[in-house]
Amino acid sequence: MDWLSAIRSFVVLADMGSFTKAADIVGVSASAMSKRIDWLEKQLGQTLFIRTTRQVSLNENGMQFLPNARVWIGQFENMLEQLQGSDLKPQGTLKIAATQAIGSSVLMPNIKRFLEQYPDLTIHLNVLTPGAPPDLEHDLVITRYHEDFDSAAHKGTRLIDYQMMLFGAPSYLSECEEIKSVADLASHKMLLSNYYQKKGGIILEDGTVFDFKNYNFVSDHLDAMMKAAVQGMGLIFISPQYVAREIKQGALVPVLPNLRSEVKQLWAYYPNSSFTPYKTRLFIDELKRSLGS
């Protein structure tokens, strides 16, 4: 047994929460995976997991050890990169968190191309609650810019600027009087995420605030929000990129096309360590190339 194999196995097991699933990713048997974890816990002199018949989860020791384990693996991968240069191929697991909207519309097309190019890599895409800050449980968190993000814990890089616009279903708009100004919106129901329901409004391009006082549906479930908008339950403020399919199909149309939010930024956040894993940097570069084009 060696430290590298044991710590790699620890990180994968922490991500998967299952000896069987983790063993499949690492390419060993479940019993071999268990032996690696037992060896690591013996060397450290403490247990790292809570084991039940249904699942495996980190205990307090494991949660404290995981960020350091990720950093150590990252340092090793960077050492290999420096030695092997362009011959290095990314492998292992890249754990990403993003909201449903970003995951579906921004990340999935890029993930498909990325995995075709690097078949030895596995990507785990988890759902991030809108407005939630970056965490240290993921290699990458793709979300809006956080002015108060912890720079001691994270590094970040801007991916793209965007603005939100107002959309509605043609069937909904045909049944009401023509909307000619922001003042006309007072009588219309809004469809909101939990984040904007709590915020209570959105800053517009001209610096004024549009208050969300009249709303009838609140959800962080993207599919539910889209269905609500398409079914004519109300109007929705959202980035055009997130509803490109619905716009193309004619299911949603812009309302007051010149009404836009202030410019917002989409960022990629990752743990602030001396070494950023090669696979993390590759995926960020892929996103920047794709979104920049």
**CATH topology descriptor of the domain at 165-259:** D-Maltodextrin-Binding Protein, domain 2
Helix-strand makeup class: alpha/beta
Discrete helix count: 10
How much of the sequence lies in strands comes to: 15-25%
User: Would you identify the CATH H-level superfamily of the domain at 165-259?
Assistant: Periplasmic binding protein-like II
Q: In one word, what is the shape?
A: elongated
Examine the secondary-structure arrangement and name the CATH architecture of the domain at 165-259.
Answer: 3-Layer(aba) Sandwich
**Average pLDDT reading:** 88
* SSE arrangement, N to C: HHHEEHEHEEEEHEHEEEHEHEEH
Keywords: DNA-binding, Transcription, Transcription regulation
GO molecular function: DNA binding; DNA-binding transcription factor activity
Pfam families: HTH_1, LysR_substrate
Domain HTH lysR-type: 1-59
What would the keywords be for this entry?
elongated, D-Maltodextrin-Binding Protein, domain 2, 14 strands, 10 helices, Arc Repressor Mutant, subunit A, alpha/beta, 293 residues
Question: What can you tell me about this protein's structure?
Answer:
This protein is an alpha/beta fold. The chain has 10 helices and 14 strands. Among the domains are: 1-74, Winged helix-like DNA-binding domain superfamily/Winged helix DNA-binding domain (Arc Repressor Mutant, subunit A, Orthogonal Bundle); 165-259, D-Maltodextrin-Binding Protein, domain 2. It has helices spanning 3-16, 19-26, 30-44, 60-84, 100-117, 170-174, 194-199, 222-230, 244-249, 278-292, and strands spanning 49-51, 56-58, 92-98, 121-127, 140-144, 154-162, 165-168, 190-192, 201-203, 209-211, 215-218, 235-238, 253-254, 264-271. It has a 5-stranded mixed β-sheet with strand order 4-3-5-14-6, covered by helices on one side. Helix 5 links the parallel strand 3 (92-98) and strand 4.
